[in-house]
Amino acid sequence: MNSSDQQMNSITYMEPKLYKAAAKGNINPFNDRLTTSLNELLTPKKNTILHVYLENQRRGSKSTDFVGQIIDMCPQLLLQANTKGETPLHFAARYGHSNAVKVLIDRAKKLAIDPENGPAEEKNMLRMTNEEQDTALHVAARNIQAQVVEILTKEDPEFSYSANVHGETPLYIAANMRFNWRFKRHEENRKKVIDEILSNCKSVEYCGSHGRTALHAAAMHGDHETTRKILKREKSLTRRTDDDGWSPLHYAAFSPLLNGFLTVRVLLKHDASAAYIVDSEKRTALHMAVVRGNLLAMGVIMIMCPASCELVDTRGWNALHYAATTIEGLVAIYFSRWIPKFEKLIYEKDNDGNTPLHLFAAFGNFPQRYLSSDWRHAYRNMCGLNKQNLSVDDILVGNFPEKKVIPSI
């Protein structure tokens, strides 16, 4: 026998007629086989006939006769996983077969073991993870299967669903789903997934990837409704920072979405101290709002936490320094005129002695147009000299060596 023949012999496959029967939910071909061998019928990915049935049913299919009958014939199939560690429950959760989920749980209860020696069989099944440490609830949340999430969370409310290998919990996965206005029904289901987890699980895990939490995810996407719901359960999340030192407020302020400022307001209403949290470069949420040119977020932060504008980053830059060096933030220079405390930042110098107006003058050709106007004359004189003894006027005529090496935001 040559190597190719050996390789062919090592491949696991299911007879085509049996595969087709399983896909259609036809139980007859399996009645003629020994029940002990049903769990040995496998595809190359080690999917059983139960996996095959579940992945080939139409979404919303209510027929569950095949599931119940095949498990009664071969109970081992209930918990048998494929090469990726996925059980039939993982498949039912992915494809939204809520009726099949109920049958799987019902059959697992009939196989229940002594509660004194360990969890019942259905609890084992609900808590089983695949190779990425996803439970069926992780899978249901990722595929926005609200009915399945409701069933799973009500069936095992005591269990705390921990993070998978990517650091994601079911709640984080749902909160991190992007809203698409063209699929309104998906958004409604996503919110229902979040509601079911928060309502039914007695102990909720909020962790996400890169040190973020579900609150970070909601804030990142400008989801003020989910932000409010999460804070109702756990207020301390406003002070949790990710691997870059960003708080949920940083993400809300940086969000380009219209709802971003609503999320900012919700976060500050629950915890005003969030406005004073700095990231790894000592930047606040106000810095982020200015970088985005997010006037609404800037306004909310300044009204609710006016003293936060005094904070500077590692370069000594305040919010207006950022405004002077970003295209989106230039409008903040003018916005500052309407908020007295914000306007005073124009005279504050960074570590190199530059005021925001020094940087504004150096940023490009168009500032020359604005700074040469009469109403800016007082500002130009009051900003003084930087550590190179350069005034705003000096910079306007091109005498600013740092102009080409201004650090990126």
TrEMBL record:
Sorted UniProt keywords: ANK repeat
Xref: PROSITE patterns: ANK_REP_REGION (PS50297), ANK_REPEAT (PS50088)
InterPro entries linked to this entry: Ankyrin_rpt (IPR002110)
ANK repeat positions: 84-116, 210-242
Protein name, per record: Ankyrin repeat family protein
Origin species: Populus tomentosa
